[in-house]
Design goal:
Elements lengths: L9 E4 L5 E6 L5 H9 L3 H8 L7 H9 L6 E8 L2 E9 L6 E8 L8 H15 L4 E7 L3 H9 L4 E3 L5 E7 L4 H23 L3 E5 L8 H11 L5 E5 L5 E2 L2 E4 L11 E4 L6 H10 L4 E4 L8 H13 L2 E3 L5 E4 L6 E4 L7 E8 L2 H14 L3 E6 L8 H8 L7 E5 L6 H12 L4 E4 L14 H5 L2 H12 L2 E3 L2 H12 L9 E5 L2 H13 L9 H10 L10 E2 L6 H12 L6 E5 L12 H5 L5 E5 L7 E4 L9 E4 L2 H19 L13 H14 L4 E2 L2 H10 L8 E3 L2 H11 L3 E7 L11 E5 L2 H15 L3 E8 L5 E10 L3 E8 L4 H4 L2 E5 L4 H8 L5 H5 L8 H16 L3 E12 L2 E4 L2 E5 L15
Parallel strand pairs: 5-6, 9-10, 9-13, 10-12, 13-14, 14-15, 18-19, 18-20, 20-21, 21-22, 23-24, 23-25, 25-26, 26-28
Antiparallel strand pairs: 1-2, 2-3, 3-4, 4-5, 6-8, 7-8, 11-12, 16-17, 16-19, 27-28, 29-39, 30-33, 31-32, 31-33, 34-35, 34-37, 35-36, 37-38, 37-39
Helix pairs in contact: 1-3, 8-9, 10-15, 11-12, 12-14, 15-20, 16-20, 17-18, 23-24, 26-28
């Protein structure tokens, strides 16, 4: 059975939004496979078998349904309980090449089923070492050729003759990822249309009393002006809040697109099953109390059986303010304001808070989905929906968990390229982090991994809901900054100083002003004004003078941002001159007005009250928002880079080494030092020469072979950080010193000593660490930072998730607090070797999924290059995850 497809199969979407179940085909599916082939039209049977005869049907059925064994596998897709299509491969010799074939029911063709099956079969084949599919296809079978060509995989088709020879490489790259994501988007949007653009909605459990949630949902749908047909289900009423009511779903005359379920928890499974039998394609379950009980199992069974999409349970509901829809299927108090902010949240409370803050700010919501316990519809679905939703100008996410982080990374990155994506980080206790044997794993807390995910995907991470609205306000009316150089203009010296401190704290540069700018300001301002940065205009300037200063700063090519911090005086309120200038949107201009009542608000003027920029009650949140959007703007300007595959990597040998180790250590464990060195060498990582000596005689022979001062390191069970516990002796030259060192290890570590490792003494250099911690959910995290024995004490590190591009690696090298001191200036260390090592370690972690922990510490960098002085690798049995496999959560 495939590691990606469990016995019950996985749900996936067709291009038209319908749900199919994909699973491995087994011998008991023979009747279904035979029936599929018998239903083929004469034309399809001719294209499938190069002839129209039926004599081959039983033979091909037997071949397809035999038990999978690595050299053969088949996957099928069931639609409404009927096998609608299948794909299978045959690799008789057990080599890397297999012949592939697909068959799809004629009634389902042109809906993406063939491509979906090919994706799942590719995943199964790669798990068994198959790297290439081949096929012979009639030239007139253009649909099948199109499936192969459009898959996004490297594909070669012979151009001539009555039939075509097709060769497909099963390697996945960015082209394949983009093709999969686009197919996913088309299918997901079609599926979610029932949730977010329904033509009809039924509220099941709509109470007659205003105090019930069902009644509130029904009233909000009515009051929002829902443009479709609205009905309710309640066996005790014919009408509720002016909405017609029927006693059961079965008695509805027309099948609704969406059912909103507000019944008690114990009634939810029967209600969802009734919806499924009636053909309702989507349900939103507001009810709570299902998770962790058999109620949840029953609900999921109905969802899978009837091919429905499910939002919730335990959620606030869904919103679409599009005038063509006007749907508020929530129990949020008051109307949800129309606007351009997309919201997806696992917490109903966070969603309600966001709506209230956006309402106060004068911004509004495009779509909102409260995912609740997130059985099916998730944040990834909404990222797909917003990708081409012109009504959504920014997105806010509150996610307490990630079902598919690598997919999230790709989708969030694609969305963030065109509009801000803001994530409110959920609290994760550092106390709960697991104890780890390696430095890297100890550093890779859940927060570090999550933040690396956000940073790589261009997601703006904040810690509170109010910080999210601060960022939205900063983006709403002003352009993104072209850089991080800020000028601070203030009529109150204290406000300017506070703003400068806050800007520096949030990564902005408060640089000295150019002479020409200072001279121009001096011509406008009184002699006692401060012409540095911040600029103190003094409290006596009027609005016109303040506006003139702002114009001068905006004309300076060395300034990207202006933060105007001012307070009203008896002379006037100079900040009121800002909106007319900010409205031109030449550069980013924000305002801080200490003393204003709202923490952040839109700022207009008497000429045009519509907001031209955001005004903050304190300089600190304004600077924090500016720092975040400047970082985001820099991310948008940078290239994604490329994830290269160095040609000298010996991947086959690495896989063989791992298999041999796990054959003797089925539970996994730490590689012996000599095996670690061999593995690093297979990936071109420059490890210092090491000789493992199990006894005194071998140690002496190793010393003679290395012929020079050596480092002697103990090899003992349970001893990983050798230098910390006295397991390293340096500059050993003579046999007497060597034997004394070995004897000392035996005295200290006793019978746990298995030998010693001898290495030539390395030329000193800067000690760094490169490591990997691999998580079953997030995949491998690569960590880079200051190394040596003090690595945990100093904790100056950068982290990124694989796949690691060259741009990611370069950002890691230059992303330490100490990077400026290490890699810039007259005595800068070279960075090219470090970028190459990070890229190779990323490939090692990605292509050898059994690596769960890896430490290269210390990695010494010198002017002449890099060298790994010590390394540890821990392996565990682990099937490779397929980040490209399309599947729904439920």
């Amino acid at each position: 059975m495939s590691a990606a497809i469990d016995a019950g199969g996985v749900r996936a979407l067709l291009a038209d939004g319908r749900v199919v179940v994909v699973r491995d085909i087994v011998p008991t599916d023979a009747d279904a496979v035979l029936s599929l082939h018998e239903r083929l039209s004469d034309r399809d049977r001719y294209l499938r078998f190069f002839g129209s005869g039926t004599w081959v049907l039983h033979t091909i059925t037997d071949r397809i349904t035999r038990a999978p064994d690595g050299r053969h596998a088949a996957v099928g897709a069931w639609l409404g309980g009927t096998l609608a299509g299948l794909a299978h491969y045959e690799a008789p010799s057990g080599g890397p090449t297999a012949e592939v074939a697909l068959v799809v029911d004629g009634t389902v063709q042109a809906h993406g089923l063939g491509t979906l099956l090919l994706e799942h079969l590719r995943s199964e084949a790669r798990r068994h070492g198959v790297t290439r599919f081949v096929a012979e296809v009639l030239a007139e079978n253009y649909r099948m050729i199109k499936v192969f060509v459009d898959a996004g995989l490297p594909c070669r088709v012979t151009p001539d003759g009555p039939d075509r020879h097709v060769e497909i490489s099963l390697s996945g790259d960015e082209t394949f990822a983009a093709a999969v994501d686009e197919r996913d988007r088309v299918a997901d949007v079609a599926s979610l249309a029932h949730v977010l653009r329904p033509s009809s909605v039924v509220v099941v459990g709509a109470g007659r009393q205003p105090g019930s949630i069902g009644h509130a949902v029904l009233r909000n749908l009515r009051d929002s002006g829902f443009t479709g047909r609205l009905t309710a289900v309640n066996p005790h009423a014919e009408e509720i809040a002016g909405v017609p009511c029927l006693p059961s779903i079965a008695e509805l005359t027309d099948t609704p697109d969406l059912a909103v379920v507000c019944v008690p928890a114990e009634s939810v499974p029967d209600t969802v099953e009734e919806c499924g039998r009636a053909g309702v394609p989507a349900v939103v379950v507001i009810s709570a109390g299902l998770s962790g009980t058999d109620l949840a199992t029953r609900v999921l069974g109905s969802v899978r059986r009837h091919g429905m999409r499910l939002v919730g349970p335990n959620c606030v509901g869904v919103v679409n303010t599009d005038p063509a829809v006007r749907m508020d299927a929530t129990f949020v108090r008051g109307s949800v304001p129309e606007g351009g902010i997309g919201v997806v949240t696992q917490s109903g409370g966070v969603g309600i808070a966001l709506v209230e803050l956006l309402r106060q700010l004068g911004l509004g919501v495009s779509t909102m989905v409260s995912t609740g316990d997130k059985y099916d519809v998730s944040g990834n679905d909404m990222l797909l929906w917003w990708r081409h939703d012109e009504a959504t100008s920014a997105a806010v996410l509150y996610l307490e968990s990630f079902g598919n982080p690598r997919k999230f990374s790709r989708l969030a990155r694609g969305l963030a390229r065109t509009r801000p994506v803001i994530a409110v980080r959920s609290a994760e206790s550092e106390v709960a982090q697991r104890a780890a044997a390696s430095h890297t794993a100890a550093a890779a807390t859940p927060a570090v991994t999550r933040d690396a995910l956000f940073e790589q995907a261009g997601v703006i991470a904040v810690d509170t809901v109010s910080e999210a609205t601060d960022v939205l306000a900063a983006c709403a009316w002003q352009p993104l900054p072209a850089g991080n150089r800020v000028a601070i203009l203030s009529n109150a010296g204290g406000a300017g100083v506070l703003a400068a401190d806050a800007c520096v704290h949030h990564g902005l540069t408060v640089a000295p002003l150019a002479r020409a700018t200072r001279d121009a300001l001096a011509n406008l301002l009184p002699p006692q004004a401060g012409l540095g940065n911040p600029i103190d205009t003094t409290a006596g300037v009027d609005a016109a003078t303040f506006a003139g200063c702002l114009e001068i700063l905006l004309a300076d090519d060395d300034i990207d941002i202006v933060l105007a911090a001012g307070v009203p005086t008896a002379v006037g309120d100079p900040v009121l001159a800002v909106p007319s200038i900010a409205r031109r949107r030449r550069k980013t201009v924000l305002v801080a007005r200490p003393g204003q009542l709202a923490s952040v608000t839109g700022l207009g003027d008497d000429t045009d009250p519509a907001p031209a920029t955001a005004s903050f009650a304190d300089p600190a949140p304004a600077a924090a928002a500016l720092g975040r959007i400047a970082t985001y703007a820099r991310w948008r300007r940078r290239s994604d880079g490329t994830a290269t595959f160095p040609p000298d990597i010996r991947l086959g040998e690495a896989h063989a080494l791992v298999r041999e180790f796990l054959a003797t250590e089925p539970e996994g464990g730490w590689l012996a030092p000599d095996l670690t060195t061999r593995l690093l060498d297979m990936f071109g990582l420059p490890a210092v020469r090491s000789i493992l000596a199990p006894d005194d005689e071998a140690a002496v022979a190793a010393l003679r072979e290395l012929s020079g001062p050596v480092a002697v390191k103990v090899v003992a069970a349970g001893v990983l950080h050798k230098a910390r516990v006295g397991g390293v002796v340096l500059d050993v030259v003579s046999e007497e010193e060597l034997l004394a060192a070995v004897a000392g290890f035996r005295d200290q570590f006793g019978t746990s000593v298995h030998g010693v490792l001898l290495q030539p003494m390395a030329t000193p250099g800067r000690e760094l660490i490169v490591g990997v911690d691999s998580d079953d959910t997030f995949g491998p995290l690569v960590v880079f930072g200051l190394g040596g024995t003090d690595t945990d004490l100093i904790a100056d590190r950068a982290a990124r998730l694989t796949p690691l591009s060259d741009a990611d690696a370069a950002e890691m090298v230059h992303g330490l607090r100490s990077s400026a001191a290490l890699f810039r200036g007259d005595h800068a260390l070279p960075t090219g070797g470090l970028v190459d090592i990070l890229a190779r370690v990323g490939r090692l972690a990605e292509t050898v999924p059994e690596i769960t922990e890896l430490d290269l510490n210390p990695l010494v960098v010198r002017e002449d290059g890099c060298q790994v002085l010590d390394a540890r690798v821990r392996l565990v049995p682990r099937a490779p995850a397929d980040p490209f496999l399309r599947r729904l959560r439920a």
